[in-house]
Amino acid sequence: xxxxxxxxxxxxxxxxxIGQSPISHRVTSSIKPSSGPSNTSKAAFPTPIEEKLAQxxxxxxxxxxxxxxxxxxxxxxxxxxxxxPAHFDSQMKWLKNEGYITVNPEYLLxxxxxxxxxxxxxxxxxxxxxxxxxxxxxxxxxxxxxxxIITDSVNSQYYMTWDQIKEMKNYGMNFGSHTSTHPNLTxxxxxxxxNQLLWSKNKLETELSLSISDFCYPSGKYxxxxxxxxxxxxxxxAVTTETGIASQKSDLFKLPRKRMEDNSNLALLLAxxx
Length: 274
Ligand SMILES: [Zn+2]
Hints:
CATH topology: TIM Barrel
Number of domains: 1
Structural class: alpha/beta
Order of helices and strands: HEEEHEHEEHEHEHEHEEEH
Largest sheet: 8 strands, parallel
CATH superfamily: Glycoside hydrolase/deacetylase
Helix content: 25-40%
Strand content: 15-25%
CATH class: Alpha Beta
Oligomer: single chain
Bound molecules: zinc ion
Distance between the termini: 83 Å
Radius of gyration: 23 Å
């Protein structure tokens, strides 16, 4: 009889401990600090430290080339799109000293309170100097950036290679689509539009084993049809060349940016709301 009770009691204890273990695990996981805005794991309960923001401002910086232009008079457009590595370094240093932390455009989908000021740093076109010059400087300041890639240009002269892009992705850099061939999206037929937005997304996702949700309009050109197609294909954000600071008022498919030039004064630029 005693043995019977002992066995029954032990069995009850085992059943109780099995029943409890998932609960104790769920409680533990819910108080684990979030690893940041890119953390997509679903906690069983809301994470207490994540305070959702009803109002926010997130500047998005737009860069093209990080290079020294030999003859700025001869190449005026090229010079306007270029920031020297030395000036880029001092711009990043200023951001660091001012208490900025870099986030991906995805942060805008569900902004939470951070202990530093969030900013998005973007590079258009996927030029080679994004790897040779911008990447090492960003790493020095422990910053992450988003690079919008023209997928058909990868591996060609003046552009990054897939190996370089993969190395940057493994470090934690973010990538978005800038179409396959950089056409004016308002001047192409529906089928071409479909292909430009879909193929570039698929190519990036296959090469990087990542889900791609950020987009950048070539030369800032888009219309309502472009936005409808982007949403249909699963994109979540799109940046423009319109000037301004992204906030709770922004349309996620019409995100404004701050154009960075070689002599840009970040303090002044970020103080101007548009
Ligand atoms: Zn472009």
